[in-house]
Amino acid sequence: MHISVFGTGYVGLVAGACLADVGHQVTCMDVNAERIDQLKGGEVPIFEPGLSTIVAHNVAAGRLRFTADAAQAVADGELLFIAVGTPPDEDGSADLRYVLEVARTIGQHMDSYKLVIDKSTVPVGTAEKVHAAISDALEQRGASLAFDVCSNPEFMKEGAAIDDFTRGARIIVGTESERVKAHMQECYAPYNRNHEKLMFMSVRAAELTKYAANAMLATKISFMNEIANLAERLEVDVEDVRRGIGSDPRIGYHFIYPGCGYGGSCFPKDVQALERAARQLGYTPELLSAVESVNLRQKQTLFTKLQDNLGSLSGKTIAVWGLAFKPNTDDMREAPSRTLMEALWQAGAKVQAFDPEAMAECRRIYGERDDLMLAGDRIQAVKGADALVICTEWKEFRSVDFAWLADQLAEKVVIDGRNLYTPSAVEEAGLRYIGVGRRSYENSHERSHH
Fold it and tell me: CA 356, 358, 363 angle in degrees (round to 5)?
């Protein structure tokens, strides 16, 4: 099939590359000419495991091309995916400016039937707005052309996006039209071999499903963080509790890891957008509001724990391992590391940070500053630091020689924001271990002696 994808961010670029990889002819369009030049030069501007290989392979095979020319992209594809950003507006609701811009562009340039597919995460009712925008543009041209709009939300995790696109649990399409169903079945046939993954439903149900899925996962994280905060006060190890409840198949082990709060481009934005949408409908979404406020509070905990253990942070040097909001990505949007570093700078502390992928992104966000040293590796990050904070659970932070670490850290404090380590192992090396909802073994021993 001839497919065009508008937007070459995480969603658009992965979708375009994967669709080309199964034999479709794909044109990826972006208004960011610099990004298109990078892609044409064989450079993939985001880090996503396996993506650059697939892009290079399909460009070489002639199935994948890049353009900054919107008219070209509209002409190239019969299926037009809209995969541009929907950033939060001032009030937290999703900003549809870019989505509707693409819709208008399609209406201005189309000269035959087009199936327009909303891939971006958009509020319920957006497909109707997209339909109206295309109709208006056609009317202004005095053109009468058939087109359809359907919703096909993405369910891709950054860091595992290719796997999720090619082997995801479901492919959801919101449409009532038989013509659209036939097109979408053909489009996704290569991914639908083993069992029927395509689920058809109304457009609005598809739009709501995407938000509901992300809000549910965010809820599990916030719930577990709430339990961790209780566990700390009750001197219980939340890891025991996590295993205890995870073994119940109705609960399961996924997304019940406590930590320093969720970040990224989806959960914070989507929970907020769903919450604002509910309020606009006159419904008070109490659970969603709580999920959001628990998460904001959780992102402060790393700083609070440092303060509790070091006293004044002015003039202190803090090592930070992990900047991306999660492993296998260089995305720092809404990352807990940012909340922490900004609070540390405010308090007069210096940060020595290392992340396997997000160093350039960190430099782009914060520029050169005297109180930020971007280290070449995890070893350099802890040299001469007072304390270490772990913000991201990258594999390479999992095994550490704690005796060596104790030699490096002046104040011998480790704040494990992702519960990577066994507290007793860290404490045996003479370090003070502070996790999320973990009890400290040195304290519990002292108590049992008295």
Answer: 130
β-partners of residue 149 are: 116
Distance CA 333, CA 326 (A): 10
Q: Give how far the C-alpha of residue 301 lies from the chain's centroid of Cα atoms, to the nearest Å.
A: 21
- State the Cα–Cα distance between residues 418 and 436, nearest whole angstrom: 7
Give the H or E element holding residue 404.
Answer: helix 402-408
> Quick one: how far is CA 321 from the chain centroid?
19
DSSP lists the bridge partners of residue 81 as 5, 117
Using CA atoms, how far apart are residues 93 and 82, in angstroms rounded to an integer?
19
pLDDT (tens digit per residue) in 52-64: 999 999 999 999 9
- Cβ–Cβ under 8 Å, residues 406 and 412: yes
Q: Which residues contact 233 (CB under 8 A, 6 or more apart)?
A: none
Q: What is residue 87's predicted lDDT score, i.e. its pLDDT?
A: 86
DSSP-derived 3-state class of residue 423: helix
**Residue labelled with tokens 């400016």:** 97
State the Cα–Cα distance between residues 242 and 224, nearest whole angstrom.
8
Which residues are marked as active site?
266
**pTM, entire model:** 0.91
Task: Report whether pLDDT(449) > 70.
Answer: no
**Mean pLDDT of the residues in the chain:** 94
In whole angstroms, what is the distance from residue 22 CA to residue 10 CA?
Answer: 19
Question: Radius of gyration of the chain from Cα atoms?
Answer: 24
- 387's CB contacts (< 8 A; 6+ apart) are 306, 309, 310, 316, 318, 319, 409, 411, 413, 414, 415
* The pair of three-digit structure tokens given for residue 410, joined into one six-digit string: 């002046």
